[in-house]
Structures are given as structure tokens and as C-alpha cells.
Amino acid sequence: MKRKIPVQNTDFISAGHNIQTPFSVILSTESSNQEVKCSRVLRNLPGKRLVCAAETGGQKVVAKFFTDPKKGKMHCRREEQGLSAFAKAGINTSELIFRAAIDPEGGRPVLVFRMFEDATDFTVAWERAQTDSRRMYLLKMLASTTALIHEAGLIHNDAHPGNFMVSGDLLYAIDGASVKVPNRGRALSPSRSVKNLAAVFSQFEPCFDHLFAEAFTAYTEKRKYPKSLSHANLLKKQIRIQRKKREKKYLKKIYRQSSAQVCSRGWDHFVVCKRNGHTRAMARLLEDPDRFISEGKLLKKGNSSTVAVLKVDGRSLVVKRYNIKSFGHALSRCFRPSRAWRSWKNAHRLLMLGIATPQPVGLLEKRFGPLRSKAYFITEYSPGLDAYGWFHSSGGKKPDVYCVIRQFGHILQIFYEHLIVHGDFKATNFILTENNRIVVIDLDAMRCHTRMGWYFHRQFARDCQRLMQNWSDIPEVSDLFYQEIEARGLLIPKNL
After folding, report:
1. How many domains does the chain have?
2. Which residue in 109, 162, 224, 246 has the fewest CB atoms around it within 10 Å?
3. Is the pLDDT reported for residue 495 higher than 70?
């Protein structure tokens, strides 16, 4: 006979992304009912999983709710099996306190884990790292733990840094649902191991690629692999492949409803907005952006676009309206993605690659059925001086000039490696912040090519040519830029 669970509020199951904390829930275990008080949402996939920081019996715990009524039991079973496989392999992992269910039939199971003391999500620890030595320490921990996972014959099909926790000198592997045992306990082959490790490394920004060689050495030493150039080359190749796959998958999500953003489609509009900024004030802006533009501070008023900076909820935003100049222009634009659509995509692409650009906040397209009209692209405001003014203000003799030029070189190298052409490399499209970090703006002409062909090389050379023209009246700066480009092996002719 099943024990009855007291009537309780289970609205959090159907609340979607709008879960209100704190809330309490009474869970049914094999021997008793347990009250769990959830104080903070750690992860939420509506209709699938909900992970909360919680407390039960005076103990801090993590409660993982499997809310899918049909597949919840299967997902819970996979989670337990994966974590059990970690534990048997001697890998630090989550400690299960008890398993329970929300309803008497057990259709929505719950796993309650002991909360790690002073633990930090690996991605948070990485963001806090201020030096390469600290980053290397974290990478070696990650590589060594991954080596143990592979040596035990396990493979993580959802391998990413967010599935690890750092606590002092220990690294914990969590999220066992995606753990597979492909070789019945036999260690993974070198090629499969390297490919899976590349899936982890590919999620770091390209500016940290120089750290991977030493971290890979820590991995090979743990696996007792002999030194092999072929393994290192395979790792580099797979990192590029995995990044492309991640980029393609990620850029498909940015135009639809998700945990990160809200999306609205109608006969006369398409709107997507970051969820953390979708307030009432933002909704009013998206309903009537022209009024806000007229009340804001105009930065540009042209035929093709109008740009204004304004305040919403106390933060400064830039709204760029792409105008329709004539009936003929309307016909030429109505069947293809708007420039705001492209800017939204390109901003997310650059941020994935670790290149600074104003954070995208919202996108609005005015539509008539499938036909597109005026469009609006909304970003956070990035204060600073444009690169033209920065270099010309002192003839390029500022103490930080070499650092800034190296940043330009890094941006060019990332663009070249990822087949990206900006389309308008004039100096005013680069903003230098207070700490001289370059922020790339005006992304509507940016394109990502599919292959390293003659057409890409021609377009990339034009970008470089336009960049060099900015400093034609400052020979010292022009020479330094050419030296930086040449040092990176981008093979740009000096007569550009």
C-alpha cells in the first residue's frame, strides 16, 4: 500500500521559466515523507528537469526533480547509473542522500544529493581566474579527471565544463544522465578519447587555445600514452570541428523560445528578447520602438539606419533601426533576413568566439505575413572612444598602443580561422573601453563563409585593406599593424 503524500502546492512543475522561490515540497521516500525547502533554482528545463539548492532536515542539499511525466523515471534511472559508474571508477561525484517522488505513483522522481562544501561551478571558477597559471591549474584538473573517466571505459556524451564542480583541490563530475559505457568497462581508444576531450576543450574561447598543449600533456600522462604528434594534431583538428558543430547548434537556438530568451511570432511581427531583460519597460520599448528612439539621444540619423541611445530600467541601451528608403528598397529587403536579424546572429557568434561586442538584448522585425519591413536591433551601450579617435589623439604614441594593436591582430586571426568577414573595418566600428578593450560594433554586413576559398581570401584582404587605410596618415601605426598581421602569418600583401 502506497503511503499518502499530503496535499501540497506543486505549481512549480507547471510554472515554466517563472518559478518563484522559495517553495517547499513534501517528497515520498521508501520509509517516510520528507519536506524539502527549495531556496534557489540552479537549472531549469521546463517539462524535463529542475535542479534547486535546498534544505531538508537541517542539511543543505541539491534536489533534482525529473518533471517529465512520461520519461522522468527513465531519466532518473540514467542519472543514478551514470553517477554510480563515476563512483565505481573512483571519480569524485555527487553523493546521493535519498531518492523520492513528488506524487504517490512515483511518476516524477526526485534525487536529493549532499551539497558540496564551498564548491563552485567550473565555469564560474574559470571566469574568476585572473591569470594563465590559475587557468592552467583548472584545465589540468579537468583534463586529469576526464582521463580517469576515459580510463574507466566511460564517455560523457554531454561533456562540458558546466558538468564539473571545483571544491578546493578536488574536481567533482556531476550530471550522470549522459554517461555511457561503450566498451563494457574497457578503456576508451586513443582516438575516441581525444575526440571526447576535444568536445570539452572546444567550449573554451579560442584566446585560451595556447593552454591546451600543456593540459593535454597532463591528460596523456594520466593515461600513460607515449608522446605522439598525431594525437596532438587530432586534438587541434577535433577542437575546430567541435566548435563548428557547437556554433551551428547554438545559432539555431537564438531565434526561438528558450531558458535564455523569450520569443513572440505574429502576422505583423517577430520579437526575440533576452529573458533576464524582458521587463515591462522592455516590453513597452518593443511595442513602440520609434517613440523611444525619438525620445532618446540620437547617435546617427541616416537614410539606411537610425541609432539612438536610451535608458530602460536604469541601464543604457542602443536601439538601431534599419530603415526602408523606398518602395524598391522595400521589395529588395522583404524576402530576405533583415540586417537586424543578421546583427543578432553575428553578435552571438562573436561572443561565442570570445570577441567583445555589445551584449545583444532584443530583435524586432515588422512583418506582413512572410514579408519583412523595418527592423530593430537592441544592444547594451558600450561607452568608450572609437579606434580612430584613440590612435589619432596622440599620433599613435600612447603607452598601450602595442597592446591594442595585438588585440586587433587577435581579432583578425580569429576572423581568418573562422572564415569571417566583417565587411566594414573602418576604425569607428571599434570602440575602446576604459581599460582599452576592443569592442566590435556594426555587425549587419558581417558574413561567415563556408570554406577557405579564393572568394573568402579576397573579402578578408579587403577587410585588412580598409583597416590599414584608417592609419594611412600615421605611418608609425600603419607599420606596427602590418608587422602584427605579418607576425600572425595572415599573408596580407604590404601594398594593401
Report:
1. 4
2. 224
3. no
